[in-house]
Design brief:
It is found in: Endomembrane system; Endoplasmic reticulum membrane. By secondary structure, this protein is an alpha+beta fold. Helix content is 27%, strand content 28%. The protein has one domain: Aminopeptidase, CATH 3.40.630. The protein binds acetyl coenzyme *A. Acetyl coenzyme *A (ACO) binds next to strand 6, helix 4 and helix 5.
């Protein structure tokens, strides 16, 4: 991705779609996530410990990122969590979480790219469906990604 002088992206992207790496702590991964929600204040060792826990469960967690190779910056991410079920012959259900594209890179189909990557991973991992919760305003985006509206979300914070 070449960025124009005003900071807005322009031209063809020099990007890489790949799995999250521990070194992405230093490429703005948490700053990107903070554009989605509160991340909290913690150091690199804490990030690395959580990264290692997730890496050990690679059949359960898949975190996809897009790196701007010129800036060495993480500009998009999404996470797949695979739930093991007893129903449907011990099926697996994929949950998409924590989808965010850096505000200066939105509208460049990078959101679509991370969702496509997760859908491919969900298929490879044997999920029979993929579900997610989102705001009303993001429904058109997910419809463009091939999902359809179903049921409602409920929550209780603990
Ligand atoms: C499960 C969850 O995590 S839900 C949380 C989702 N994340 C957020 O709300 C964080 C803030 N928002 C963002 O990071 C981004 O706006 C995202 C992730 C929602 C979308 O990423 P982008 O890279 O901007 O979207 P992208 O360019 O891939 O859009 C794909 C298509 O959806 C359309 N689209 C994207 N957002 C919207 C929208 N809000 N309303 C209507 N259409 C939209 C685009 O126009 C495009 O259509 P096209 O194929 O006809 O060109």
């Amino acid at each position: 991705m070449t960025a124009a002088a005003d900071g807005k992206p322009a031209g063809q992207a020099n990007i890489l779609v790949r799995d999250l790496e521990a070194s992405d702590y230093n490429k703005g991964y948490l700053q990107l996530l903070s554009q989605l929600t509160k991340v909290g204040d913690y150091d690199e060792a804490t990030f690395k410990a959580r990264f290692d826990e997730m890496s050990k469960r690679s059949d359960t967690y898949k975190v996809v990122v897009i790196e701007d190779l010129d800036k060495r910056q993480i500009i998009a991410t999404a996470t797949l969590v695979v739930e093991l079920k007893f129903i449907r012959g011990c099926a697996k259900c994929g949950h998409v979480e924590d989808v965010v594209v850096d505000s200066t890179y939105r509208g460049l189909r990078l959101g679509l790219r991370v969702i496509e990557a997760l859908m491919a991973a969900a298929q490879e991992l044997g999920c029979y469906k993929v579900i997610l919760d989102c705001s009303e305003e993001n429904v058109p985006f997910y419809e463009k990604c091939g999902l359809t509206r179903k049921e409602v979300q409920m929550v209780k914070y603990l």
